[in-house]
Amino acid sequence: MSRAILRDSLSVALTVGVYGIAFGAAAVEADLSVLQACVLSLLTFTGASQFAVVGVLGAGGSALSAITAASLLGVRNSFYGLRMAPILQVRGAKRLAAAQITIDESTAVSVAQEDKGLDAMRLGFWATGIGVYIFWNLFTFLGALGATALGDPAAWGLDTAVPAAFLGLLWPRLISKSARVVTLLSILMCTLLIPFAPAGVPVIACALIPFIFAFVGDRK
Amino acid sequence: MIWTAIIATSFIAFMLKYLGQAVPAAWLENARIQKFALYLPTALLAALVAVQSLGSEKNIVFDARSIGVLVAAVALFFKAPFPVVVLLAALTSAGIHQL
Fold first, then answer.
1. Are A60 and A132 in the same domain?
2. Number of Cβ atoms within 10 Å of the Cβ of B24
3. Would B19 be classed as within a structural domain?
4. CA angle A8, A17, A166 (to 5 degrees)
5. What is the pTM (predicted TM-score) of this model?
6. pLDDT tens digits, residue range B48-75?
7. Are residues A137 and A40 in the same domain?
8. Residue range of the domain that includes A75
9. How many domains does chain A have?
10. Which of A53, A160, A213 has the highest number of chain B CBs within 10 A, making it the mutation to test binding with B?
């Protein structure tokens, strides 16, 4: 049983790790150094937020816009933590470590083991979280190094790798009609704000759409 | 400025992760808050796609990046794996730059 979980964890960790190459390259594209790209992956360690930081900074946005956009994207990890806390039952240093690796993938693999019991869920969480941590950081370094060696990023299409990566992260979320409506409204609102708002602000403003959706719409 | 963004983002990202582990479950179990949390990443990712593929400084443009992202959408529609999607998008826009 545990071998099957470890195999799942490893394949998820490797696949997600490869995203790290795109992130490292995107960071360098946005004028971050290799060190800055690596520190983001080591400390922030939540892909979408990291892409948001380099995306907003790269577009000329302020540090505050970058931090706000990234933090709004990180809110979902609180809900993953909430889901994982009663399963993991950890305290002290172990809880700090668990918190750092509470991301989309570790939560997803753990929840997928629900029918196999608590031990399986714990193993799925730790193995995937630690595995992703290792590969994500390794590949960030390689991606940043590679992009530095390439020279002009636009000539290699790296300026397009970032929005393509965002689209890749967005795609699996488009499973419901509501999600597709939110997506279309968000693209429309954000695009229309581009000429009027400072860089980074159109993205943050789009948090208003799910807010209205959740708090003004009918209770469902 | 970059370091400020990196350190602050990392700190907040960690606190958000830790918060979920540490607060009483009832705090976040409100149906409206859950709905907000479900659609927030969707809206932000869509917005990021939009600014990065259609925005250039303060102008709305349709350029090599826009076409690259359209190619990425087609690749995703045909269930291409993530690295292939990113690579196709990059190659498309690199190709257009070469023209």
1. yes
2. 9
3. no
4. 110
5. 0.84
6. 899 989 998 889 999 999 999 999 999 9
7. yes
8. 2-162
9. 2
10. A160
